[in-house]
Write a structure and sequence with these properties.
By secondary structure, this protein is an alpha+beta fold. The protein has 2 domains: 3-129; 173-293, Immunoglobulin-like (Sandwich). The protein has helices spanning 3-66, 71-93, 99-169; strands spanning 173-181, 196-203, 212-221, 227-228, 235-238, 241-244, 247-253, 258-265, 273-281, 284-293. The strands form 3 sheets. Strands 3, 4, 7, 9 and 10 form a 5-stranded antiparallel beta sheet that branches. A 3-stranded antiparallel beta sheet has the order 1-2-8, with no helix packed on it. Strands 5-6 form a two-stranded antiparallel ribbon. A hairpin with a 2-residue loop joins strand 9 and strand 10. Helix 1 (3-66) runs parallel beside helix 3 (99-169) and helix 2 runs antiparallel to helix 3. The longest helix has 71 residues, at 99-169.
């Protein structure tokens, strides 16, 4: 074989080898470029995920800040929210290819999230305590209201009982009658011969009344509503004012029924008609009766 032929064969082999080598290196370069592109895409995706996690964490801080009343805890949450926002701002300007810084920011995210968990636990604990306190406060208010209502009810019952006792202790006049008497203190049926009026009455038995000396006042009112009285100074106190009386008498009351009489000496012309006799004692009206002069 000629040298020239051998040389050509060798040249062809070398060219083929170079071609294969070029194809191989091109393929390898394309594969590395594809792998690099996939790696960059993955890093971009991870960066986006971390950004989302930071953004969600910042929103969580906002939510908890709005729902608590503790100023100290609000300040701590605000500080952490500021830190989260700063890290998020840094992450946004950090290239996704800066793997080391991205990894550091991922670790920072884990740290602030752990702090967040601690604060959430504190918030939950405070909320639980507040619920207990609110429940206890409601119960205390309920008991206080119930106690107040009980006191008010007892006060009303006591007041009612006092009123009942007071009414029960008031003396009462019964068996009233008016007897016209002549100048000899004899009963007369003649209007013109009447010199005295005898008012008979009975004070009933009353064990709740205070025993002792009592002044019985008799107030006689004529048909024209004028009160018969011997002197302008003959007055007694009744319902916050002084009123005139016709006759009075002291008695010793023991609680047992007592019958007695009061007298009016006729010194004026008494018109015919219906009269009223009112009895008073201890500042109370204890009897009221009507009688008539017709003859």
């Amino acid at each position: 074989m000629k040298k020239s032929t051998i040389f050509i064969i060798i040249a062809v082999v070398v060219l083929l080898a170079l071609g294969v080598a070029v194809v191989y290196f091109v393929n390898q370069s394309q594969q590395k470029d594809q792998e690099m592109a996939e790696m960059v895409e993955q890093m971009n995706f991870e960066k986006e995920q971390i950004e989302k996690d930071y953004s969600d964490l910042a929103l969580d801080y906002d939510g908890y800040t709005c729902n608590i009343k503790n100023d100290s805890l609000i300040q701590l949450l605000q500080d952490q929210k500021t830190k989260v926002q700063q890290l998020l701002d840094e992450l946004r300007v950090t290239k996704s290819t800066n793997a080391r810084r991205i990894a550091e920011l991922r670790k920072e995210l884990a740290t602030v999230r752990a702090v967040m968990v601690q604060y959430v636990n504190q918030i939950d604990s405070l909320n639980s305590i507040n619920k207990v306190l609110k429940t206890e406060n409601v119960e205390v208010k309920r008991k206080y209201q119930a106690a107040t209502e009980t006191v008010q009810q007892l006060s009303k019952e006591k007041e009612t009982l006092n009123e009942v006792v007071t009414r029960a202790s008031i003396l009462e006049v019964t068996n009233f009658s008016m007897v016209p008497l002549n100048s000899k203190n004899k009963k007369t049926s003649w209007f013109s011969q009447t010199a005295n009026l005898q008012f008979n009455y009975t004070i009933t038995k009353n064990v709740t009344a205070t025993p002792g000396e009592k002044i019985i006042y008799l107030r006689i009112t004529k048909p024209d509503d004028e009160v018969l009285t011997k002197s302008p100074g003959n007055v007694f106190h009744y319902e916050n004012k002084d009123i005139a009386y016709s006759a009075s008498k002291k008695i010793e009351y023991t609680g047992e029924a007592i019958s007695d009489a009061l007298y009016w000496k006729v010194g004026e012309i008494l018109p015919k008609g219906t009269y009223r006799a009112d009895f008073f004692a201890d500042g109370n009206r204890i009897g009221s009766f009507s009688f008539a002069f017709e003859k």
